[in-house]
């Protein structure tokens, strides 16, 4: 993945590269009733925040975090160093082999497309395996301009019913869902704001451009924090 070095400098400093909390991971594991010696993939793991949560919540499991960005994997290595059941590695999340009992993907499936990603992951699931992923959604109705502007970089974004249709098109059934609004986003943009402040002094023009773009994104979210959402979807092949 060819990303500007200034972008990587900012985002590799973050605990996570998008909204989400450990509570979301634990909710999913609880709803799915997962425990024991499982094989788990954190697809698009970034710097490994959810890999850590998965490894601690599933001490008998083997958790493999996978990301295509070397800077993220490098930054995340120290986070899992003391977890014997977790490892991060470079790889293509569109070419998983498995077999995995759980494929977890927080905010990353959009790089593949929901239907396309689920289809690609089907062969990587063990019998009875499940996928848990979060994806941006429109909540419906008359969306404020800030919401439309926020999601402009994702022109294929749909609403919750559209997301369900994408999952069904991939040949999966939805087991449960959870909307991620408010607190997970506040925590994420709070961390982005802190890192922007740390990098702003003496920033090069290229770095200043990246910092400005990230500030604009956070400002759009703050204009409509109750209307910008991810949906966390738990799904199993039909």
CATH topology: Rossmann fold
**Number of self-contained structural domains:** 1
The radius of gyration computed from the alpha-carbon positions, rounded to a whole number of angstroms, is 17 Å
Q: β content, as a range?
A: 15-25%
Instruction: State the end-to-end distance.
Output: 32 Å
The CATH H-level superfamily is: Vaccinia Virus protein VP39
What are the secondary-structure elements, in order, as H or E? HHEHEHEEHEHHEHHE
Strand order, largest beta sheet: 3-2-1-4-5-7-6
In the CATH hierarchy, what is the architecture at level 2?
A: 3-Layer(aba) Sandwich
GO molecular function: methyltransferase activity
Protein name: Probable Methylase involved in ubiquinone/menaquinone biosynthesis
Keywords: Methyltransferase, Transferase, Ubiquinone
Pfam family, one: Methyltransf_25
Give a verbal description of the structure:
With 238 residues, the protein is an alpha/beta fold. The protein has one domain: Vaccinia Virus protein VP39 (Rossmann fold, 3-Layer(aba) Sandwich), CATH 3.40.50. It contains nine helices and seven strands; from the N terminus they run ααβαβαββαβααβααβ. Helix 4 links the parallel strand 2 and strand 3. The model has no long low-confidence stretch (mean pLDDT 96).
